[in-house]
Please model this.
Amino acid sequence: NNSDPAIALPEDQSVLAQNVEYVDSLLGERRLGTTAIDLPSFIDGGDTDAALDRVTFLFRHLPTADETASEFWVLGVTGTTTAKLARKTATWQSQVTISDTPTLTGFYQYQWDAVSIHGKLHFAYRSNQDRLHVWDGTSMRRSGMKTPTAAPTAVDNGSGTYASTRYFRVRYTEQVSGTTVRRSEVSAVLTFAPSGTGSGAVVTKPTTVSEGETHWELEASTDNSNFYRVATTVVATTTYTDTASSYTSGTLSETAGAYTVIGSARYLSHDDDRLVWAGNYEDDDLASRVGWTPVFGASGVGNDERFETANDPFKDLDTYRHGAITGLSEPMLGGLWVFKQHAVYKLTRTGLTKQSYDSDKYTDALGAIHGSVISGTDETGQPCIYFIDVDQGPCRIGVGGIQRCGEDLRATWNTINIDATKVVSSALYYPTKKQAIWCIATGSSNTPDKCIVLHVDKSRTFADGIRKGWVLWTGNRSKAITMAMYADNIDDNAARSLTLVPYIGLEALAFVHRCDTTNQDNTVAYTATIKTKPYWLKSIIQRFAVMAGYLIAKAVASSQITMKVYRDFEAETTVTVPNTSLAAAGSETNVIKFLDNLKGAEMRIAQFEFTDPTTVSAQWQLNQLAIREEPGQTS
Model:
């Protein structure tokens, strides 16, 4: 707690908890470090960091229901000119060709988003095309299929009685093993008036759209209202001869607008077995829009790559007011939560095909910074959503509504650089340790340089919000540009473990690190420190002396701790006790260390600091400090 006056802190808070965590101990333990993982040469240049500058996006993809077959995706960037995408299954695969040229200037290289659903990996990023993109297991391509750019053409054929005006239109499709898996929106309609003396009409398809189409479907009508699919033809065959006198016995075509492609969305989620998207990179009129696809099992094909305009599959949330959408949650607390910089909305399913969601503005007093929204749990294990408001700092939405979480860290929050290129790295919730983690840019830093970490199980509800449970992390661990959970055996080149740990993407610094490994951040040292609140006897009028101390800690053979005693708010460091061994004398699991030289005289206020020894060789875990004191003169 660096916000309240130090003398006001409760017994279970400290003035500083840096590079520590509260998972297995009562006083705190040193956080673990990171280790660089093996990367393909086109990302790391053969471990020389020469190929690229930074990694800006990490993601865990599930191509099947088997979590041991998960994939790890990495986006590496050079300046504002080059982007390379890597994919690891059991081993690293060939470089993935990025569909369309991504925009890498300004904020955009840091704003990629993705969602894994139906075995596909859907991507949202700004490119030279106003489209969503998808990895379908074989290649990365544009989502859906482009509408044909023109109507078909037709001419009379042969001799006969083919008469009455006809209406023709075309769709392109992709077939896999004889099954249609994608379909385009319909072309413009050709109105064709036969001569009345021909045997039919030779219909020529329009120019192909070059988006993986394998076939084209001809749809025909005699009333320009009810269209029927009359032929499916491979794209290499450019014409079809229609000789039918009527079409009502054929397959009724789907309505126009049923296969509209999804534009360049900013955020992705999923709900009720459908893809949900929000915002738009290209059109300010759509910057406040949330849209959704049909549910996967609905009629039609490629349902997670299209939206049906006839069913009003979108909500515009106060267009222009409060700016653009800045975040989209996973399904939580009965709905989807949508954030702007200064507004929060909830979308709730209606159970209807048309207008599938209702929207309610939850508040316009708070909002979320891009990249700060994560799903997690609260101190009781109830689901909740955490986010960071530009003014209030960390907040959450849970069973108690919206509550502030960051009152303990106001001094830290006041240093945030809200104009940084990357203000907040993609936030992370670490279930095993019950940690909500954000890396933020502070001071003049243009990318993250500090981690704020909430131990959600240690937080508690007070009148002024959620308090307690916070620590700060510095060092290279805090410089994450992007974060993701993935299997802890990533370098084993085997079936992926079900134990997930955090991974971070960095600028240089070996690019991608696995967390919770060693005592350094990939060989770079950092210092862990806990500094207690101030302690006094009856009041500050009475002086006292610290005579000795007893420390209870986990027994670890090579673990050491350095302790300091401060007098009167650091007016003096009365003693530094270096390198106290926490090794067991026998088989005990915890040690009690007598600190005879932990002393300080003429003290009105005493504070105690635990920090790293000169050389760190093992994690320390502290549980209790007891001090022997002697009252002195009252003045």
